[in-house]
Structures are given as structure tokens and as C-alpha cells.
Amino acid sequence: MNVFRGSAHLRAAPPCALTIGNFDGVHRGHHALLQALTEGARARGLASCVMTFEPHPKEFFSPAEAPPRILNLRDKLTAFADIGIDRVVIERFNAAYAKLTPEQFVAEILLRRLNTKWILIGDDFCYGAKRAGDFASLKRAGEQFGFEVSNINTVLENQERISSSALRNALAAGDMAKAALLLGRPYMISGHVIYGRQLGRTLGFPTLNLAVANHLNERKPAMTGIFTVLIHGLGDTPLPGVASLGVRPTVEDAGRVLLEVHLFDFNADLYGRIIRVELLEKIRDEAKYPDLETLQSAIQNDAQCARDYFQKKVHV
Q1: pLDDT of residue 192
Q2: Are 255 and 247 within 8 A, CB to CB?
Q3: Distance (Å, rounded) from C-alpha 100 to C-alpha 128?
Q4: What per-residue confidence (pLDDT) applies to 114?
Q5: Which candidate among 196, 222, 298, 309 keeps its CA 20 to 30 Å from the CA of 123?
Q6: In the predicted model, is pLDDT for residue 213 greater than 70?
């Protein structure tokens, strides 16, 4: 899969089948659209192309009101690659881009830069300044300039629309089973292992630290808390552990969001490695404790809860 930072690098690009969106979560609704795109592109002899945005338009217009990200960019690109997308264009959303009229968007972005021959969109797609363009106007533009336009209906689960909002709600509630159902896969977060304060070692629970907020545009993640986890990327099989996702209120007041992972019966120098953390079950909410001794006791209880989870799985 080829990834381009901006469509300006794609003038005179090979013709493509295109879809456009933020695709936060790359959930089952997104997957249905992207799968249809790859199949339609193959049937038409075109490259499949996804255009997405950084930052999210809502973060640009109303940063304080923008929803938390579900996936970091690395995990989003991994999901695209797993589906079989050929090309991803990460378009920087800025003031100039926000001012493009629907007509300018079609002429400059779709035709001149991306060389779009077929575009497949969701049923809520809008484009251009003030979201003035819609499916009907895009269809007319396609008839005028010679590209095909199709749409795909919403995917439902128990009569509920599968959406990024529904997925955020499931994550915020700590309902990892529902999140996995909406995603079509377990919820994971990936990142580089970074140096921490080594506090976990002094408490008897050494951790691998991932700086989550930096990957999510300095915004808080879709959820926080203590979780039973599996860690991928350190061997042939995933390793069990327990993890804290949040701001560590007992030991830090800077608001930095970390994913701290304690692996059971494993100790090695992993700084700089990229790992993926699969969040299986929420144990409890994040809490602030009066001292490190109380924190240590809570961590011991969390670790035992996670070990009990895996022990039950073995005997099922």
C-alpha cells in the first residue's frame, strides 16, 4: 500500500477508484464500504484509493468539541492495508482546504490530482465549503466530467447504525465485547515503547510505556481505565498482561496520557519496539490514591483480576 501526505504529490496519478472519509475506527460499516471499493476497483481495472484527513475537520473547526480519536494514524493505515487498499492520501485539512467550493473540489482534487474514474461514498457524505456538496451534486459532476459515482447504505447491528459514535460510546462504557462486535475485530492500540519514570519497577510491576496522546493529536483517548490485555509483536503468540490507559493521577499531574502495560512473567529491554495492545476487558476506572502503598495494593488486585481472566479462559 502506498501512502501519500497530500494529494498535491499525485498530479497525473494513475486512474483510481476513490472513497473519502475520516474512517475513525475503521469499523464494520467502514469495512463494508472499503471492501466494496477494492472489489469495484478490481473489476474496473483501477487502483483503490482512500482519501482521509489530518487533522479531523471537527478538530480544525471546533477543537474543544471534537470527539476523541478511536485509532491512531498507524492503526488506521494498518486496517486499510489489511483490507487491501492500494493507495492512501492523507490530506492536510487547513483553512485553504476548508474554503474549496464543491466545484473546486471536483476539478482540483478529484480530477486534476487524483484522476478519479469511480467514486464510492457513504450515505451521509458531504464535500466542499460548508458541506455544500452532496451525493446529488457529485452525481451531476460525474455525468459532466466522465466519472462514475456510487453510494453504499449504512450497515446496521440490531437495527442500530454502526458508526464511529456508537463505537466511541461502547469504548467509553468499557464494553469491549460490543466494541469488538462493531469493529469486527478486537480493539487494539499500537505504539513505540518509550522510557518512563521506572516507577513500576519500584512497585514490583515493571511496565512498557506507550505515549498514546501524541498519536491521537494530543487528545484524550476514547476511554481510560485498567484493562486485561494481550500484547502482540513480541513473539509467535500474544502475551497476557494488565494495562493502565490514562493520565496516572496518583503519580503525575501533567495530564500526559500513557498506556502502561505490565506483562506477566516477562522481562526484557524493549525500548523503541512497536507493540500492539489488545484490550480484552475493563477491570475498573482509573483512580487517584493517597500514597504509593495504596497504589501498589490496587495494582496487585488488578493483576490478579487479569490472571483470573486468563485462567478462566483456559478452563472454558
Answers
A1: 85
A2: yes
A3: 5
A4: 93
A5: 222
A6: no
Q: Is 199 exposed, middle or buried (0-12, 13-18, 19+ CB in 10 A)?
A: middle
CA gap 171, 183 in Å, rounded: 11
User: Quick one: pLDDT band at residue 255, thresholds 50, 70, 90?
Assistant: low
Distance CA 75, CA 3 (A): 14
Contact 57, 94 (CB under 8 A): no
Tell me the domain boundaries of the chain: 2-161, 186-315
Burial class from Cβ neighbours inside 10 Å (0-12, 13-18, 19+) for residue 231 reads buried
Q: Which fold has domain 186-315?
A: Elongation Factor Tu (Ef-tu); domain 3 (2.40.30)
Residue 123, C-beta contacts closer than 8 angstroms, at least 6 positions apart = 135, 151, 152, 153, 154
pLDDT at 10: 73
**CA–CA dist 216, 123 (Å, integer):** 27
What integer is the mean pLDDT of 17-21?
Answer: 95
Q: Could you tell me how far CA 212 lies from the centroid of its own chain?
A: 12
